[in-house]
Specification:
Blueprint lengths: L7 H21 L8 H15 L11 E2 L2 E2 L3 E2 L2 E2 L9 H12 L7 H28 L2 H12 L2 H7 L5 H21 L5 H15 L7 H19 L5 H21 L14 H10 L8 E3 L2 E3 L8 H9 L2 H12 L1 H4 L4 H24 L14 H18 L3 H24 L14 H5 L12 H11 L9 E5 L5 H7 L5 E3 L11 E4 L8 H5 L6 E7 L2 E8 L3 E4 L8 E4 L7 H14 L3 H14 L4 H13 L3 H14 L4 H16 L4 H13 L3 H14 L4 H13 L3 H14 L4 H13 L4
Parallel strand pairs: 7-8, 7-9
Antiparallel strand pairs: 1-2, 3-4, 5-6, 9-11, 10-11, 12-13
Helix pairs in contact: 1-4, 1-5, 2-3, 3-4, 4-5, 4-6, 4-7, 4-16, 5-16, 7-8, 7-15, 8-10, 9-10, 13-16, 15-16, 22-23, 23-24, 24-25, 24-26, 25-26, 27-28, 27-29, 28-29, 29-30, 29-31, 30-31
């Protein structure tokens, strides 16, 4: 590659990159904590401590009999996060402990590192354009278009995994494209970079293994082509293929260097991790899409492609359309360029088609396939560059330049005017953020929480000497709020149930409407005094407690805050809030009990009925979910959210194979829900699979005790004690049955 060192585009490229390296980290200092960050911060500590030999959490298996288990540490996943590689989280923690802890807290440090990954992503996009075309002008164009892609820009400020993975994914793509361009020559440097990029990509997310597939899928036919056209002989082709295979294997196994759990089985564990990502269904990720609430497993086939379409700026959308139109022109380029075009298109189409065909449960807008977006940006860049090249007339070129500046000016303005919530961008094809509101999921990740806290701290009108205003947030990871409240001189965190009156301000997100659709339909909530917005569109609301009265005095020391007498609590609202609270804490049995009490109070409330069904699904009690749903369909046969949940029940039943552990859990669930006859029935099913199950006999004994059939309880305990004579639970339950029966 011959490069003119005096090229002004090269100078501008480096100046632009340098500006990004300064600006993005500075902007990241204003970004708030997002939903996934706490567990990644914790995971980074576990990873680094495992390397230090003082903690084994990072190698604990996140699986139990093939099922992903959510062991928790407080509210943070402790072992399930091990399905992710530890490269980014571990190195981020290392940087924090050794350098940045002197200046920043862990989250600020993490945000700065994330923003640097974002800048690297922009730069790599430009360098791939340079590698393909040998043009610094096109490289600069790619860098500019990437920078002014608001979702990439916004996620770069505080996304702990999707931006780093997209960066490493594109770094690997760059190495693959460079390898193809250098063929039939193979340099040691390129092979080292290629193998390392495979390992580091998988060391962030196991899905990075797809890059090895891309490499091999394109290398083999390309070598055949070079051999067929006599550009290399057969022996040379075989040698290249063997070397590439060795590099691929080393790259695959090498991810264990950055992933503690993978060290337990470097061959199989990445695939086990992939199987979890494909069928991830542990969370209630009901989202609004095209104006409808869509539940797990009910997303339309075009879910991911449309999310990408509606969140890309017109610069990229038009550029991609232009690329398709100009394909005949691009097919006349060099073979290495054509190969690069094919690889970039494949890097987008393959994951999209895989998700559609396998019906993978991909969550949360376009975030989980963010790695596919840079390929589209590069193709769009190449198309714009080709169009500028084809237009010879000076006036037409000027008009084209004005059009391009107008198109790129729209996302650039959004980025400049909406810090730190640039990731809430929506394309003009759906009317921007305004058109997306109430039609598509908005701030489920919590980007607007910190701006809300900052506003309350600045505009708090109820502060009195010696008293801090109490702020609460009901939805999502609480540290998004508490981290900033704890450092405030005037605010305090209000830990209370949703129906509690012991708070001054409440931060409410539209995403909460997945539990109560009326919230979004009648937005903003009653008592709203301010809304954090993106382009005048709400992302969250700040609600002031209507019971508060601030009495101002001439003397600040005499200012007081008083409360009006609260209206009698609505028992239905209280129970609904209680159920939702249990659901959020994954205590689904208690959620079932609370939601059923709601239905007893209001038998025609379809939302409460749906909540019971959703809770049953989370407990894998699919038959109960289907049966209970009939109550809701009798009220509203077209209730979409209930349809989604029931469809999920039927779908899960088709593939679910109950085992002994399942029946033990089912028996326990029935017991907690106070359905003691079904407790016994489920325990007996466990005994059919394993007649020597002391757990099953203990569950039967406990149920009979609750049914006041004490002799049967003692008989069950005796059967269990014959199997396990030292079982303390059986002994205790038998003693209790004997006591209640009046025996000594």
């Amino acid at each position: 590659m011959k490069i003119d060192l005096s090229n002004p585009f090269k100078t501008l490229f480096f100046l632009w990159a340098a500006a990004c390296i300064v600006i993005l980290p500075l902007l990241s200092m204003h970004a708030g904590i997002t939903e996934d960050e706490p567990q990644h911060i914790t995971y980074g500590r576990h990873v680094l401590d495992w390397y230090r030999g003082v903690d084994s959490t990072a190698v604990m298996s996140p699986f139990d009999n093939g099922v992903w288990k959510l062991a928790t540490e407080g509210a943070t996943s402790k072992t399930a996060i091990n399905i992710y590689g530890g490269f980014v989280d571990g190195t981020s923690e290392l940087i924090y402990r050794t350098i940045t802890h002197h200046f920043f807290d862990p989250y600020e440090s993490k945000h700065i590192i994330s923003s640097i990954y974002g800048v690297l992503l922009f730069i790599i996009i430009g360098l791939i354009c340079l590698t393909i075309t040998d043009s610094w002008g096109i490289a600069l164009l790619g860098l500019v278009i990437a920078t002014f892609t608001p979702r990439l820009f916004g996620y770069a400020l505080s996304n702990p995994k999707d931006i780093p993975f997209a960066t490493m994914f594109m770094f690997c793509m760059w190495q693959i494209i460079s390898t193809f361009k250098e063929l039939p020559n193979l340099s040691i440097k390129r092979m080292i970079l290629l193998g390392l990029s495979f390992s580091m990509a998988m060391g962030i997310r196991s899905g990075g293994a797809i890059l090895i597939f891309y490499f091999q899928a394109f290398l083999f036919p390309y070598l055949l082509y070079l051999w067929y056209t006599n550009e290399i002989d057969f022996n040379r082709a075989i040698k290249i293929f063997v070397i590439a295979g060795i590099v691929s294997v080393i790259g695959y196994l090498g991810c264990a260097l950055f992933w503690p759990w993978d060290t337990l089985n470097p061959i199989l564990n990445p695939w086990r991790s992939l199987s979890v990502f494909k069928s991830l269904n542990e969370f209630n990720c009901s989202e609004v899409f095209e104006g409808e609430w869509i539940g797990n497993g009910q997303r339309p086939w075009y879910w991911q492609p449309k999310w990408i379409y509606i969140t890309l700026p017109l610069t990229t959308i038009f550029g991609c359309a232009l690329f398709l139109i100009l394909i005949p022109k691009f097919l006349k380029k060099s073979k290495s360029e054509i190969l690069a075009y094919g690889l970039l298109m494949f890097s987008f189409l393959f994951p999209m088609l895989s998700i559609i065909i396998s019906d993978s449960n991909v969550l949360n807008a376009e975030r989980h396939v963010l790695f596919a977006v840079p390929g589209l940006i590069i193709l769009a860049t190449l198309a714009w560059a080709e169009l500028f090249k084809q237009v010879k007339d000076s006036y037409q070129r000027m008009a084209l330049g004005i059009l391009f500046l107008m198109l790129i000016g729209e996302p650039a303005r959004f980025i400049a005017c909406n810090n730190p919530v640039q990731s809430m961008y929506f394309s003009p094809v759906v009317g921007g953020v305004k058109g997306a509101f109430k039609n598509y999921e908005m701030d489920y990740y919590g980007y607007s929480i910190r701006p809300a806290v900052d506003w309350i701290a600045e505009h708090d009108s109820i502060h009195a000497p010696g008293r801090k205003a109490r702020v609460r947030m009901w939805y999502g990871e609480q540290i998004k709020l508490t981290h900033y409240i704890d450092s405030s001189q005037t605010l305090a965190y209000a830990l209370c149930e949703e129906n509690s009156q012991d708070w001054d301000y409440s931060i409410v997100l539209p995403s909460e409407s997945k539990f109560n659709h009326d919230l979004l339909l009648h937005w903003p909530p009653a008592g709203t005094i301010y809304q954090v917005k993106a382009d005048q569109t709400p992302l969250c609301a700040i609600v002031k407690n209507p019971r508060i009265t601030y009495v101002q005095s001439n003397s600040p020391s005499q200012a007081t805050v008083t409360y009006t007498t609260p209206a009698p609590a609505d028992p239905f609202a209280a129970l609904l809030a209680e159920g939702v609270g249990y659901y959020q804490k994954a205590d689904y049995n208690k959620a079932v009990i609370a939601f059923k009490k709601c239905v007893e109070l209001k038998p025609n409330d379809k939302v409460a009925i749906n909540d019971v069904v959703a809770s049953y699904n989370s407990l894998k009690m699919f038959d109960e979910a289907i049966e209970y749903s009939k109550k809701g369909f009798a009220i509203d046969p077209d209730f979409q959210l209930l349809k989604n949940n029931v469809a999920e029940s039927y779908k899960a039943k088709k593939t679910f194979v109950p085992n002994e552990a399942y029946y033990h859990n089912l028996s326990y669930n029935y017991y907690v829900q106070q359905d003691y006859l079904k407790t016994i029935e489920a325990a007996k099913k466990a005994l059919k699979l394993n007649p020597n199950s002391s757990i099953a006999w203990n569950n039967i004994c406990s149920a009979y005790n609750q049914l006041k059939e004490y002799q049967k309880a003692m008989d069950a305990c005796d059967r269990g004690l014959k199997i396990d004579a030292q079982n303390a639970m059986l002994k205790n339950n038998r003693a209790e049955a004997a006591r209640l029966a009046g025996q000594k």
